[in-house]
Amino acid sequence: MENIDMAKAIMEAAKYIGAGIAMGFGAIGPAIGEGNIGASAMEAMARQPEMGGTLITRMLLAMAVTESTGLYSLLVALILLFII
Amino acid sequence: MNESKAKKKKLTFTKGEKIFLGILIIIYIIVGIFNLKSMEPLTGVGERWIVTLPFGEGLLSRINPMTVIMSWLIMLILIVLAYRAGKKFSLIPGKFQLFMESLLEFIYSTVEDSTSKKEFVRPIFIIAATLFLFVVVSNVISGFPGVQVVPTDSGIKISLFEDTWYTPTSDINTNATYSVMVLIISHAFAIKVKGFGKWLKGFFEPNPIMFPMNIIGEIAKPISHSLRLFGNIAGGGILVLILSYMAKYMFIPVVLWGFFGIFVGVIQALVYSMLAIAYISSQIEE
């Protein structure tokens, strides 16, 4: 075990830590955004229950767009884990 | 007709059936735990089968054969579907005709709502519907087990029905191509509507200092447009692969394939075509 390459070990460790940090912090923004969207949709549905079907479709669309920033961090994490 | 009857009937078990199901679940979990020990490591996650062409150089000579094959397969599926839908139109539509009509009508009404110019409704509808149909078919087949090719240390490994179908949308090249296409189409329409001078002036809009900002804004559009779809499909695929590797003999993967393949796939295809409509129709407003 004497000739273990220290630089390689540090890089390996940094890879996993970096992936964890990227995914953890990247998930904060989309979570808040999706929470806001869901809350507003619920309020609107409570006020006008007959609009429920339309609102759910729009809500899912808006959520899919909001999610994209979280997905960028997921991509970065996956690239760190599997490709580099 | 038996199916509709069976659906309405409430699901009840006798005592013997309950015991049988309980034993089945226990065996299932025990087999799953025993299989956990004898797992070979997962190789080739997130890697692509890449072939280098004999001519050309650099990035341009490398192709991903699965993307090409699957793109042609999906085009074939769409052609067959279109042929079947267009063969006979009846005044009283059948199930299939009704489905296709309501799908295309939904996209048409969305385009009509977001575009103020009447003469551009039809071209934008054709582009958006084409993108939607291609993307939705290629996303939904990622919810079914199928053929996947991954490179390993010793050549390539063709896995049949272990993983989901390879989808062209989980390759960034496909998405980037379509997004750049949408960008070029939107600017071509803008030139057609406003004229070249006015279109060029649009880049210097509030004042000339904003020119770099406008250029960056235009370049960012196809990047975010293509990466959104790529991230959803490729990320979901890798997530499902890893989770199904961890719980190989459990029920979880089936549910996840349904969620990531069909639910997320349809929503992302909708988002992709909606954004294409929004980008094109925002350019042709004066």
Give an account of the 3D structure.
The complex is a heterodimer of chains A (84) and B (286). Chain A is mainly alpha-helical and 84 residues long. Chain A is 86% helix and 0% strand. Chain A contains 4 helices and no strands. Chain A has helices at residues 6-26, 28-47, 52-66, 68-83. In chain A, helix 1 (6-26) runs antiparallel to helix 4. The mean pLDDT of chain A is 87. Chain B is mostly helical. Chain B has one domain. Helices cover 66% and strands 7% of the residues of chain B. Chain B is built from 9 helices and 4 strands, in the order ααββαααββαααα. Chain B has helices at 2-8, 15-37, 65-87, 95-114, 121-140, 172-194, 196-201, 211-246, 252-283, and strands at 51-52, 62-63, 145-151, 156-164. A two-stranded antiparallel ribbon of chain B has the order 1-2. In chain B, strands 3-4 form a two-stranded antiparallel sheet. In chain B, helix 4 (95-114) packs across helix 5. The termini of chain B are far apart. The mean pLDDT of chain B is 83. Chain A binds chain B through residues 60-61, 64-65, 67-68, 71-72, 74-75, 78, 82-83, and chain B through 45-47, 224, 227-228, 230-232, 234-235, 238, 264, 267-268, 270-271, 274-275.
Number of strands of chain A: 0
User: What proportion of the residues of chain A is helical, as a percent range?
Assistant: over 70%
Decide which structural class fits the backbone of chain A: mainly alpha
The order of strands across the largest sheet of chain B is 1-2
Q: What form of chain A results from the Cα inertia axes?
A: rod-shaped
Main pleated-sheet profile of chain B: 2 strands, antiparallel
In one word, what is the shape of chain B? globular
Total strand segments of chain B: 4
Total number of domains of chain B: 1
Q: Strand-and-helix sequence of chain B, N→C?
A: HHEEHHHEEHHHH
Which consecutive residue ranges of chain B, at least 5 long each, have pLDDT under 50? none
Multimerization state: heterodimer
* Rg of chain A, nearest Å: 20 Å
What amount of the residues of chain A lies in strands?
Answer: under 5%
Instruction: Report low-confidence residues of chain A grouped into runs of 5 or more.
Output: none
